[in-house]
Amino acid sequence: MISFSSFYKQIADSQLQHWLETLPSILGQWQREHKHGNLPKWEKVLNKLNYPEPDRLELKNSVTIGSGEQLTSGQTEKLENLLQLFHPWRKGPYHVHGIHIDTEWRSDWKWERVKDHISPLKNRTVLDVGCGSGYHMWRMLGEDARHVVGIDPSPLFLCQFEAIKRIAGQNQPIHMLPLGIQELPPLDAFDTVFSMGVLYHRRSPIDHLLQLRDQLRTGGELVLETLIVDGDENTVLMPKDRYGKMNNVWFLPSVDALKLWLEKCDFIDVRCVDVDVTSLAEQRSTSWMRNESLVEYLDPNDVSLTVEGYPAPKRATFIATKNEPNLDLK
Length: 330
What we know:
With about 325 residues, the protein is of the alpha/beta class. The chain has 10 helices and 17 strands. The strands form 5 sheets. A 7-stranded mixed β-sheet has the order 9-8-7-10-11-17-14, with helices on both faces. A 4-stranded mixed β-sheet has the order 1-2-4-5, with helices on one face. A two-stranded parallel sheet has the order 3-6. α3 (about 40-45) runs parallel beside α7 (about 155-170). The radius of gyration is 20 Å and the shape is globular. The chain starts with a helix and ends in an 8-residue tail after the last strand. The model has no long low-confidence stretch (mean pLDDT about 95). One of its GO terms (molecular function) is methyltransferase activity. One of its GO terms (biological process) is tRNA wobble uridine modification.
């Protein structure tokens, strides 16, 4: 069974220690409710990932674990087969003992677009909301963050994260919890909070912004990336049914509309630092993600449109600072 005891120990003497009042019971309930389904199978795979401490751990410019020279060819083949059991791998890429986990998303491209605009992460406590398999968390650790916490309710993403961590070494100050942000109390503790690729999945985007704000200390920094559409501060697209074949897309605001939302939620110094159209090279099917991907979500006759006729995915990244508490927003 996946254990969270090391996380409890690491936060016991930190600014997150008050989280221990509620977190163990919440995660205990999660463990009881996920005894069935695929989790037991995935946990058996995790128990087979017993490898020596890697001779290389590169997190600054990539996520590379091991030089590729520690394992025999047979061990490498076995490891690759075990990691393939966690298909589909969506966020990456990872390089593990010479194995290239070529994920659906080139998440390293997104990180390159973001990293030079954020406050330095050195010695900061960081929360990554909707972290997926944790790729960006490792890059945050590579920027010398003191402690990185990721949350995502997907058991598969948790197991993918645990697989990478077990191979990288368990003593890293990086942890993932199988929770949604609605399950977090207002912690008011993180120096930086990331929400990348989450907002458009929320039925109430304003509530999501307030939940993000409640995790930050005063003066802390929000890094928000989401789908947007062109328009003025009153422009918001709400798909009638699906968007890019996704049935859980609710609101796509314009850059100006989202800036207004953030300011309405009492963030200050709000700025859009990047706008980028998602390319077919950034999101695609691979041998590690063999399902449909972006090319199937777009109009085959006009890739500037989704198959439903909406504008093709365009993403914007915002940076904002948590202002002094405004009790009217509680």
